[in-house]
């Protein structure tokens, strides 16, 4: 593991974590709309980034580390999603918890697929 790689991931991660926190604070709600939003958007953007790197070879390994692993890895969050589910269940909101889980499990892979499959076609 090279120091340059660690630095790129750390810088990207700092940006992604701050962006996620800011969005969650900007969208205060009893339902975790902020976390759902960042997970869906982050999955879409990661799909676009990976597709551009594989299909068109337009993304350098350094950008993948900075943006993909660092920024988008910290922007999207499984741990906050898990905590949100536990808090919804603990407060007796079982149906919203189930809906939130289904939305994350359906929308995140779907948005990643759309980003991966269709957006790069616009740039080819």
From TrEMBL:
GO BP annotations, alphabetical order: cellular detoxification of fluoride
Annotated family: Belongs to the fluoride channel Fluc/FEX (TC 1.A.43) family.
Molecular function via GO: fluoride channel activity; metal ion binding
Keywords: Cell membrane, Ion channel, Ion transport, Membrane, Metal-binding, Sodium, Transmembrane, Transmembrane helix, Transport
Matches recorded under InterPro entries: FluC
Cited HAMAP family: FluC (MF_00454)
Annotated compartments: Cell membrane
Catalysis performed (reactions): fluoride(in) = fluoride(out)
NCBIfam families in the record: crcB (TIGR00494)
Membrane association type: Multi-pass membrane protein
Pfam families, per the entry: CRCB
Membrane-spanning parts: 36-56, 63-86, 98-119
Protein name: Fluoride-specific ion channel FluC
The organism's place on the tree of life at top rank: Archaea
GO terms under cellular component: plasma membrane
Organism: uncultured marine group II/III euryarchaeote KM3_12_H02
Known function: Fluoride-specific ion channel. Important for reducing fluoride concentration in the cell, thus reducing its toxicity.
Record comment: activity regulation: Na(+) is not transported, but it plays an essential structural role and its presence is essential for fluoride channel function.
């Amino acid at each position: 593991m090279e120091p340059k790689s660690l630095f790129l991931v750390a810088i990207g991660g700092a940006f992604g974590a701050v962006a996620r926190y800011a969005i969650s604070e900007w969208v205060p709600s009893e339902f975790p709309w902020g976390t759902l939003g960042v997970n869906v958007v982050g999955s879409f953007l990661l799909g676009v980034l990976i597709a551009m790197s594989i299909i068109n070879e337009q993304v350098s390994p350094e950008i993948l580390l900075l943006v993909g692993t660092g920024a988008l890895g910290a922007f999207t969050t499984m741990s906050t999603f898990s905590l949100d589910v536990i808090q919804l269940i603990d407060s007796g909101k079982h149906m919203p918890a189930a809906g939130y889980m289904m939305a994350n499990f359906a929308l995140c892979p779907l948005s990643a697929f759309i980003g991966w499959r269709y957006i790069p076609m616009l740039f080819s």
